Amino acid sequence: MRCQMLISLLRIISFSLVIVISHVVVADGVVVDKVYHPYVLPNEREFEWRMLSHQNDAGNSLAQRLAYGQSLTEYIMVEVYVVGERDRSGDFGLSAYEVETRWMLTEQGEYWADWGMLLEVEKEHKRDIWEVTTGILFEKEFGRNSLALNAFLIYEMGSDIQSEFEREFRLQYRYRWLPQVQPAIEVYIGEDYTGIGPAFMGIQRFEGQKQLKWEAGFITGLNGDSKDHILRVAIEYEF
Predict the structure, then answer these.
(1) pLDDT, tens digit (0-9, with 9 covering 90-100), for 21-80
(2) What does residue 157 show for φ and ψ, rounded to 5 degrees?
C-alpha cells in the first residue's frame, strides 16, 4: 500500500514538472516565496513576517513583508501586507501594499486531494503599477508525506508598466517527521528563474487555537549564473 502511494506521489510530481517546464517562458522575475496550503481555520487570526534575500552576480537584494490576517468565514481568509525592499544600492523602503484572499474549496480529507483558491491584489508604492494574481492551491497527503502545488496566473497593468500576463509555479514536498521539524524540498519556476532547494518548517501549538509556525528555505537557481541563491524565512503566529 505504501509503495503504491509513493509511486502515485512520484507520478504527480513528474507530471507537474513536465507541464510547468513546458510553460516556463511565460513569467517574469524571481518567484520564490511562500508555498501556500489550501486550509483555513474558523475564527483564525494571524500575524506574519516574511523575509527574502536574493544574492546573484548583480549583488544582493532584500525584501520583507508584514501582514495581519483574519478569517471572514470558516472557508475564507483575508490578509493585508505591507512590503519593504532593500535594493542593490543599499536603500531600504516601502515598496508595495497587498491584499490577499484565500478560499478553502474542500474540507481537509473530504476528497482524494484538498483544493483551494487564491486572489491577490498588489499596488506598488508611488508608482502606477498593479498586479492581480489568481491561483489554484493543491495538497495531497500520503501518510506522513505531503505534496503542495501552487499554480498562479498574474496580470500586471498600470501607466508605469506594459500590461501583460504571467504564470508561476511552486511545488513543495514535505515529510512530517515531527510537528516542530518537517524537512521539505521546494521547486519554483518562472521566466528568468528556475530554482530548487531544501526547506525546513515546523509548528508549535499552545493553548486553544494559538500556534507558532516557522519556515526556512535555501533555493539555488538553475539558470547558469555562477551565483544565484535565495534564502527565505517566514514566521507566523496564529491565535
Answers:
(1) 444 333 345 689 999 999 999 999 999 999 999 988 777 889 999 999 999 999 999 999
(2) -155, 165
C-alpha span between 165 and 205 (Å, rounded): 40
- Domain extents for the chain? 2-238
Q: Are the CB atoms for 50 and 219 separated by under 8 Å?
A: no
Is 2-238 CATH 2.40.160.40?
A: yes
Contacts by 130-135, CB closer than 8 A, 24 or more apart: 130/156, 130/157, 130/158, 131/155, 131/156, 131/157, 132/157, 135/36
- Each residue's pLDDT tens digit, 178-220: 999 999 999 999 877 899 999 999 999 999 889 999 999 999 9
Closest C-alpha to 44, from 220, 236, 234, 179: 236
Give the pairing of strands 228-238 and 211-221: antiparallel
What's the grid cell of residue 184?
A: 521539505
Residue 67's nearest CA partner among 84, 52, 53 is: 84
Contact 209/238 with Cβ under 8 angstroms? yes
Q: Where do we find the cell 512590503?
A: 83
- CB count in 10 Å sphere of residue 183: 14
Q: What is the pTM of this model?
A: 0.85
